[in-house]
Amino acid sequence: MIKKINSRMIGAIKAMTTPLVLVSVLSSPLTNAYADQEQRTCSSIVATGNPEYPPFLWHAEQGNELHGALANLMGEISERINIPIETVYVGPWSRSQQEVRSGRVDLMAGAFYTSERADYMEYFSPAMMFTKSVVWQSNAAPFEYQGWNDLVGRWGVTVINNSFGQEFDTFAKQHLNVLTVASLEQALSMLGAGRADYVLYERNPGVAYVQKLGLEGVRYVEPAISGEGLFLTISKMSPCNSPEIKGKIADALRDLVAEGEPQVVLINALEEWRSNTFPSP
Question: DSSP secondary-structure letter at 15?
Fold first, then answer.
């Protein structure tokens, strides 16, 4: 449950926004904002991300914009590099990755590092924020969980093209039975209905959606399966992928992280999500 901001929560938020240096990184019809890649120049930049990721990112029912801490951080970067950045909804998480891969969208606002993604995106350092991925269980069918091996032989669910870091992804491919579905809402509903043993997803977005869907019989368990940085990336096919533009973005991001801005936008996004999802009577 997302609770009122207090000193304890601020401490947790600081843990999600501590800088990290990553080694060997950075060396449906579409909207008019990014409709024709070949005709575009870098007079503006289009970003996207996971639309089921509150408080980091989410898509409201109206409009094609994404909201949340990462969208707000894109606005801060935009002001510093003096180039408009629009953070848009292009579909589910799997579609977002396809659009960045193709270069029709320039930036991915929030991605874990994997070697597969590094084939089509360049990563900026440091990480913008941090998040933990956990195992979600149903209270109606709990099982003992102390580590990855306790998932072997059970049926899990996660969202299409989701990653939990290189190490766990490799373990899952070799040892786990994990189905993939289009949305977090579908995955959690399957768990609540007893059609899966567990769901794999990030802790904070999962808490937000469990609360939104009223799934009182669903909870996460510790320890986390992984803790990863959320990185800003740029498509290798983007017309904005030039040394000059990347240098400006990298400088702006480093300054914002050093100034503690990710913590500020995350606190504001938590309040925004809470007030919009559970308005006062």
Answer: H
Do 11 and 72 fall into the same domain? Answer: yes
Q: What is the pTM for the complete model shown?
A: 0.82
How many angstroms separate the CA atoms of 191 and 189, rounded? 5
Q: Please give the DSSP secondary-structure letter assigned to residue 184.
A: H
Would you say 148 and 213 are in contact if contact means Cβ atoms under 8 Å apart? Answer: no
Q: How many CB atoms lie within 10 A of CB 180?
A: 14
What angle, rounded to 10 degrees, do the helices at 69-81 and 261-277 form? 130
Q: Are 145 and 217 members of one domain? A: yes
Domain-located, residue 1: no
For every one of its 281 residues, what pLDDT tens digit does the chain have, with 9 covering 90 and above? Answer: 333 334 434 444 444 554 433 333 444 434 444 444 444 578 999 999 999 999 999 998 888 999 999 999 999 999 999 999 999 999 999 999 999 999 999 999 999 999 999 999 999 999 999 999 999 999 999 999 999 999 999 999 999 999 999 999 999 999 999 999 999 999 999 999 999 999 999 999 999 999 889 999 999 999 999 999 999 999 999 999 999 999 999 999 999 999 999 999 999 998 999 888 776 55
Structural tokens at position 43: 């007079």
* Residue 165, domain CATH: 3.40.190.10
* Residue count of the chain: 281
Same domain, 43 and 171: no
235's tokens: 């498509």
> Is 82 buried (19+), middle (13-18) or exposed (0-12) by CB count in 10 A?
exposed
Provide the domain limits for residue 198. 131-227
| Distance of alpha carbon 195 from alpha carbon 144, whole angstroms | 18
SS3 101: helix
